[in-house]
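step: validate -> pass
step: tokenize input -> pass
step: predict -> running
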Amino acid sequence: MSRSFRVSAAIAVAVIVGGILAACAPATDPSPSVSPSATRTQTPEPVPTASEPAVAFGGDCAAVLDADALTAAMGEQMNSWDPVWEDGAPAKLGGVRCAWTSEQYLSVSAAAWVYPLDVLDAEWVVGEGGNSCDADTHSCIASAVFGDAWVGIRLSSDRAESLIENARPLVDEIGAKLAGEPAPVADARSGWWNAAPTCADLAAALETQGIGLTVQGDYPAAAPAFAGGPLERGCAASATVDGVTFQTHVVLRAGAAAGVAAVLALDPDAAVAADGRTFAVTIEQYPFDGGSGLMLGDDGANLVELSLFNGEPTAQDPVLLAAILDALAP
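step: predict -> pass
step: emit ->
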């Protein structure tokens, strides 16, 4: 995830839809000349309906958009980029998010999303938010609705404002492919934050535990905009733990708890035990460069990322992370 989300960053609670299966009664040959022992019973395979959880394109980014098509649209070589560890949140929402980077360093990075329409903020979808550029025009989005699904492409580049027009046909291409795919449908999301808590709410909750957090910036993820509010939020702050004051950056990510287990599966030595919990130490995932160290903790449903500005965890970092998880517990 790019550092744009260090000071901004992604994910609201979607509508929970139950699953049902279509049932078919057995069929028998109506001919009276057929004996009972010869009666044929057909049991068709259940046909999934639109209400069963389904991930857009099965989560396969190669099926979403071919890198060669993106290369032609951008006018330079674009290569797919896969995160080292996944957090599982998009799939729970029935969505998929994909990323590509230019072969030329820092020239262009691209992201594509496909989500069920009902997990997104309806006003944002029909408004200008899904087809706009940031104030500095270095990040632009093109999107459209196809049936019950939303498709968006974001470009980050100093040429984003002009390149985004080349991305609009790619949005249509992805939308056309959706016609041959199962409709994306969100799964149940037990324990998710309805929206990522605000930094002010986090500071107030920590104060009850004797930990000071002076918020210097509150950066909710702007796109896509989810129903109920942003599912990711970054908080730049100074924290005071056990009399020690230090700079920190906290990222709250609804539904992304699987990130901790994913990191530990790759590197069991990344585990940090604290206050009866197991945290994981890793680094931020950027398409172009490595990033700052992170300590990850989860509450079983949601993920908290704590930046390690010293590179390695200090004695205060796991104390702060445990306090955040306690403070935001239901």
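step: describe -> The chain has eight helices and twelve strands.
step: cleanup -> pass
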